[in-house]
Specification:
Blueprint (H helix, E strand, L loop, with lengths): L1 E10 L3 H18 L2 E7 L4 H7 L5 H8 L3 E6 L14 H11 L4 E7 L12 H4 L3 E7 L11 E3 L6 E3 L6 H16 L4 E6 L5 H14 L6 E6 H10 L6 E4 L1 H13 L8 E5 L6 E4 L16 H14 L3 H16 L2 E2 L9 E2 L2 H11 L1
The protein binds nicotinamide-adenine-dinucleotide.
């Protein structure tokens, strides 16, 4: 029997509620497909700060490094916003990404047919959307040095550094090429090279790497135009390649094409070692503990973990099919309520998904 060791980081806010469902799904799939899955839950985020005074404690990082894959829910809460930056839950995310060298973040954005009416955009605009955002995850302005605040002057000042080395751009471009080669072979690289030197290096490097693969068709777009095009005509995109900051913003924008941020999964990968699979959304403190969160993004992240991290393709597909079946029957969590569906709680819709498997 195949045996997998995964680490679960259920984190903060709605994290424990949506994690519980994914674990039940995994247990059911492990029986159906005869694999053994050991789920090792570790402290991460605000809850880890409470216990260890560190949002990403060494013990958690060590367990993650020794696993086959990491399933992460979400972290954060306003109550931690006044902490020193390195103690905040979000800094734990950056630390985990760095520790596992997760330089590639993959965010598929696909419209699920039963949800065509749930988007704030018109059905005709979104019906053919099927794109993947490939975002560089451990470089750029979120990690660049120097950074800081100067407050001992008359006027306060704060600064960050947006910096990329060409080898960081090369390796993420190769990931985008690999994904594009399994799809339509189209890459749109997004930057701000009309203003930023770092974006000019990005554009030149992406061109150099992609031009070695004659099958790939590369286009470039400025990030401001890309934001507009994602709303105006999102189906023009197939693989979007972009840097850490632009990818962070554009992938949330793309998430809303699907109707709710509660629908979108992601994978963060290195060239070797375990990946981290997590929903795009945050800890949603406004609805935490109310049993109304949408658990589908987490369930789809579990599907990505099975497919990419553990190579359990059939089990991964089962989750997707089960979710589509549940949505087709008109069941929704309240974030997707269009007035024409049966609204269920987080745990109820979780049970429906589990029954479909
Ligand atoms: P958020 O994604 O948590 O919430 C934005 C909005 O979407 C809220 O109205 C929330 O209720 C809703 N929402 C999010 N997920 C949902 C779900 N599964 N079902 C139904 N509704 C959902 O973003 P935010 O409010 O900007 O941030 C809240 C906290 O999460 C902050 O502390 C932030 O730093 C953190 N955060 C963490 C991650 C992460 O863990 N990867 C990502 C983004 C934000």
């Amino acid at each position: 029997m195949k045996r997998y060791k995964i680490v679960l980081l259920s984190g903060d806010g709605i994290g424990p509620e949506i994690s519980e469902i994914s674990i039940k799904i995994l247990k059911k799939l492990s029986r159906k497909y005869a694999f053994d899955i050991e789920v090792n839950e570790q402290y991460f985020g605000g809850i880890a700060y409470e216990k260890y005074n560190d949002p990403a404690p060494k013990v958690t990082i060590d367990h993650c490094k020794a696993s086959d894959a990491v399933l992460l829910a979400c972290v954060g809460d306003v109550k931690y916003d006044t902490l020193a930056r390195e103690l905040r839950p979000e800094s734990g995310l950056l630390k985990l990404r760095s520790a596992l060298n997760l330089f590639a973040n993959i965010r598929p954005v696909k419209i699920r047919k039963p949800l065509l009416d749930s988007s704030s955009l018109k059905k005709e605009i979104i019906e053919n959307v099927d794109l993947i955002v490939v975002r560089e995850l451990i470089g750029g302005i979120y990690f660049g040095q120097p950074r800081g605040q100067i407050s001992n002057t008359k006027v306060k000042k704060a600064f960050n550094t947006m910096v990329y080395e060409s080898n960081e751009i090369e390796r993420i471009t190769k990931v985008a090429i690999k994904i594009a080669n399994q799809r339509s072979k189209k890459i749109c690289s997004i930057d701000k090279s009309n203003v930023l030197e770092v974006s000019q290096l990005w554009r030149d490097t992406v061109f150099n790497v992609t031009s070695k693969d004659k099958e790939i068709s590369l286009s470039n777009m400025y990030v401001d135009n890309a934001a507009m095009q994602l709303v105006k005509d999102p189906s023009q995109f197939d693989v979007i390649l972009t840097s850490n900051l632009f990818g962070d913003i554009l992938s949330d924008l793309a998430a809303m094409l699907t109707g709710s941020i509660g629908m979108l999964p992601s994978a963060s990968l290195s060239n070797s070692g375990p990946g981290v699979f997590e929903p795009v959304h945050g800890s949603a403190p406004d609805i935490a503990g109310k049993n109304i969160a949408n658990p589908i993004a987490m369930a789809l992240s579990t599907s990505m973990m099975l497919k990419i991290g553990l190579n359990e393709i059939d089990a991964a597909n089962d989750i997707e099919i089960a979710i589509d079946n549940v949505l087709s029957k008109g069941y929704r969590t309240s974030d997707l309520n269009n007035g024409n569906c049966q609204v269920l709680s987080c745990s109820e819709i979780g049970e429906k998904i589990i029954q479909e498997i």
